[in-house]
Amino acid sequence: MSLIIAPSVLSADFSRLGQEVEDVMEAGADWVHLDVMDGHFAPNITFGPPVIKALRPHTSAVFDCHLMIEPADPYLAAFAAAGCDIITVHAEATKHLDRSLQAIRDLGRKAGVSLNPSTPESVIEYVLDRLDLVLLMTVNPGFGGQAFIPSVVEKVRRVKAMIGRRPIHIEIDGGVTPETAPMVAGAGADVLVAGSAIFKGGKEDYRRNIEAIRRAVAAQRAA
């Protein structure tokens, strides 16, 4: 699978979020990553369906919605209606993961599951055929700008082996930079979420920041 760059708007300027989405897509991003936190499952509060609905007219790009909320099931329909194309729930935040994934697909959306750094990949073994995406956290949920946790690289390799030939994306969220991106891409990840590494500087830097990640991964693949 070709590399997909999904900037996290968590690191964007919230006072001009619609324009930020337009600017980062114009700079060469592929998806828009939406980190939704509830102050309960994750120790931070970000935004919900109304903000996502307001952003939807600003781009036709894939809205990649990462729900760090507990419970998630009661809100799935609202996020689907707001315009999310992929809805990812945390395995740790639902008692019935299979049911949650079925519910997402029943809404006509692609279904993802996310695992915290300390969660073993074995929890997704019996839901692989329900999945379009596996999101592996390389930081603990809650805040942008955290340091990358290197031990997750081997988890990426194990998940890649579990997936086999299934058309499932492996996404990485947390501490993605031109230095860490080649590590996870080399292990099998094809979707990279980056926040501060892309939104640092001003609008004129976004393209340069995105291209730096792409170049680093391309160099690793060519080696």
Notes on the protein architecture:
By secondary structure, this protein is of the alpha/beta class. 35% of the residues lie in helices and 19% in strands. It has eight helices and eight strands, in the order βαβαβαβαββαβαβαα. Strands 1-8-7-6-5-4-3-2 form an eight-stranded parallel sheet. Helix 2 runs parallel beside helix 3 and helix 6 (181-187) packs across helix 8 (203-222). The longest helix is centred in the last third of the chain and has 20 residues, at 203-222. It is globular and about 45 Å long. The two termini are 18 Å apart. The mean pLDDT is 96.
Element layout with pairings:
Blueprint: E1 4-7, H1 17-26, E2 31-37, H2 49-55, E3 62-68, H3 76-82, E4 86-90, H4 97-106, E5 110-115, E6 133-137, H5 152-163, E7 169-173, H6 181-187, E8 191-194, H7 196-199, H8 203-222
Parallel strand pairs: 1-8, 2-3, 3-4, 4-5, 5-6, 6-7, 7-8
Helix pairs in contact: 2-3, 6-8
What is this structure, in a nutshell?
By secondary structure, the protein is α/β, with parallel strands linked by helices. It is built from eight helices and eight strands; from the N terminus they run βαβαβαβαββαβαβαα.
Radius of gyration: 16 Å
What's the number of extended β-strand segments?
8
User: How far apart are the first and last residues' alpha carbons, in Å?
Assistant: 18 Å
Outline type: globular
Helix content: 25-40%
Note poorly predicted spans: none
Mean pLDDT: 96
Strand content: 15-25%
The biggest sheet, with number of strands, parallel, antiparallel or mixed sense and barrel status, is: 8 strands, parallel
Structural class of the secondary elements?
alpha/beta
Order of helices and strands: EHEHEHEHEEHEHEHH
Widest sheet: strand ordering:
1-8-7-6-5-4-3-2
Number of helices: 8
